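step 3/5: co-fold with 6-O-phosphono-beta-D-tagatofuranose
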Amino acid sequence: MSRSESESESSSSLENKSCEIIKGINGLDKIILREIHGTTVEVYLYGAHVTSWKNDQGEELLFVSSKAVFKPPKAIRGGIPICFPQFSNLGSLEAHGFARCRLWSIDPDPPAFPPNVTNRAYVDLLLKPTEEDLKIWPHSFEYRLRVTLGPGGDLMLTSRVRNTNTDGKPFTFTFAYHTYFSVSDISEVRVEGLETLDYLDNLKNRERNTEQGDAITFESEIDKIYLSTPSKIAILDHEKKRTFVIRKDGLPDAVVWNPWDKKAKAMADFGDEEYKHMLCVEAAAIEKPITLKPGEEWKVRQELSAVPSSYCSGQLDPNKVLKGS
Ligand code: TA6
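step 4/5: write tokens
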């Protein structure tokens, strides 16, 4: 389905002027965050799904397939799908859980911002299980997602999951921010920060292996869950001279996925050649599922930044990016 959207002012606009709600594709409500230097973010209430993050030059930094279906109950192909309460295509729930296929609401009672935070480009979204959801996953929860566009154009997603069971029962889940980065040419991309780590290989029935000592480069399909990863991971796009930096907190694992040509052709909502222009690097909690007792809250976040990198001239030392502030 072509991505033509008729945007129109909706009746309600949020209190925060750097943040407005309009109609997106197929009339789905979406929030636009605008930062003073021109960076923008768009997040659909459907799935609390970030579908766009543009820098101050208006360049799109996230990948969304031209064949993405913006129509429930299908998950939107690209952007930042929220994988909760299950990161897996197996298991009892729908692939990667149901959170990305539900309508979220604007949180009427958002958590307070820390006093020293001045940026105003943010939105707070809330998901609670429906009666239908409770039939397939019999646990009460409140999932609060804060999407923040920082003054430097950084995109931060903060997740808070609270167990609101009244039956005294704990629940266990796995999680990922399934981020699709836009890259110029996958064969010119390298990932720094995952060298020598153990990983589970989804292409070999989650067999455990150890990554080699160099940066990761891409010549074929990859689907690996790296374990106990550092808080910073760098994705260097040689052609664009741009480095994405993922800073994560509370998310020990990182999934790296590119479907390559064969799998690309097998996905109806993904262009045959689009694998060349995307890479998923996903901050996650998979190896050690999270268990919450009633009343307990789990809070995690990922912060994405896009920095110019003259890596090709050897001026950018990726380790400096990873070890820097
Ligand atoms: O994150 C990698 C992965 O688990 C792959 O195995 C592939 O299935 C991808 O997610 C896409 O999953 P989706 O359910 O969004 O089609």
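step 5/5: annotate
The longest strand covers residues 278-292.
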